[in-house]
Specification:
Elements (H helix, E strand, L loop, with lengths): L3 H10 L18 E6 L2 E5 L5 E4 L5 E4 L7 H9 L6 E5 L5 H4 L2 H6 L3 E5 H9 L1 E3 L4 E3 L10 E3 L2 E6 L2 E7 L9 E5 L4 E3 L20 H12 L7 E3 L8 H23 L4 H6 L7 H4 L6 H11 L2
Parallel strand pairs: 4-5, 5-6, 6-9, 13-14
Antiparallel strand pairs: 1-2, 2-3, 3-4, 7-8, 10-11, 11-12, 12-13
Helix pairs in contact: 1-10, 6-7
Length: 298
């Protein structure tokens, strides 16, 4: 059984995977746009960071946060282009990245995602760590176009590649690469500057998180810009530091497991004590993070 502090924190984090409810107040949320490259922006508000491409062909949006924010997101897009949103590509199934799907589809956008994202949205997912059921999404919120490995868009003068990275944050994670602009949207495979959340019940694995980082690092350069699922805009150096942290934590936990330590004993051993000042300031606190790493290694 997990320590009480771990269970409590995870029950809070579970809300990130669920659609927004009518009781939540998004009235104070402001959608802000940060230019990443010519015609490419990162939008922030409440939930996962959005990616946006604007140009002659129309707006191309990566993720769409929560349903109550759709109007604000569309207004922010309108400040950058008079063209409508033609595509929404989801990086994974969590509600802070897909909650606006139904609204965006009704507004005319074509919804695109990896096939595992559609499957989890269509059937729902039981999240064991939180003892909570994520209910199926409405049919109108489901991706219309799905892919198994990769799909390319030739849009706004760009080659935009969306590719599956295998089980990482979930079992449906996709990374989107703007090839000419040298920009990646990494979804929740990257929590820049903080310990990440791994959705173990949805197939998430610490090894997969490391593999996803390695895949981008192989092609990234010093001028590459990375839009994380959470946190500020990142560079290759930021991603390398994040990847090294993930590997350090995995290896330390693996060593303690090999010594026969229980999950509670591993958490109590504080294997990230020297890393916590730098990485422990996000919503995943050290003990919670270690608990998820242990679960993901089973």
């Amino acid at each position: 059984m997990k320590p009480r502090s771990l269970a409590l924190a995870l029950s809070i984090i579970a809300l990130l995977a669920l659609p927004a409810t009518a009781q939540e107040d998004f009235s104070a949320v402001e959608i802000k746009a940060e230019k990443v490259a010519d015609g490419i922006y990162m939008l922030t508000g409440s939930g996962g960071n959005l990616g946006l491409s604007v140009g002659e062909d129309g707006a191309y949006l990566i993720d769409d946060q929560y349903a109550p924010l759709t109007g604000k997101i569309l207004a922010a897009v309108k400040e950058l282009t008079a063209k409508p949103v033609r595509f929404v590509v989801n990086t994974h199934y969590h509600g802070d990245h897909t909650g606006g799907n139904e609204n965006m589809g009704e507004a005319g956008a074509l919804l695109v995602a990896h096939e595992n994202i559609r499957r989890r949205m269509a059937t729902g997912t039981f999240m064991e760590a939180f003892n909570r059921q994520v209910e199926p999404a409405p049919a109108a919120a489901l991706p219309v176009v799905t892919f198994s490995d990769a799909v390319s868009f030739h849009w706004n003068g760009e080659e935009i590649r969306a590719f599956f990275v295998g089980p990482a944050h979930t079992d449906g994670d996709s990374i989107i690469h703007f090839v000419k602009a040298d920009v990646f949207h990494m979804g929740d495979t990257l929590f820049n500057g903080m310990y990440p959340f791994i959705d173990v019940s949805a197939g998430g694995r610490i090894d997969g998180m490391i593999t996803a980082a390695d895949r981008v690092l192989k092609v990234a350069g010093d001028t590459t810009r990375l839009i994380p699922g959470h946190g500020p805009l990142a560079t290759k150096a930021d991603l390398q530091a994040y990847r090294d942290m993930l590997a350090q934590v995995r290896d330390r936990v693996a060593k303690l497991k090999a010594e026969g330590k229980t999950a509670e004993q591993i958490v109590a051993a504080k294997p990230t004590a020297d890393l916590d000042e730098k990485w422990g300031g996000g919503f995943m606190k050290p003990d919670n993070w270690i608990g998820l790493v242990i679960e993901s290694m089973k």
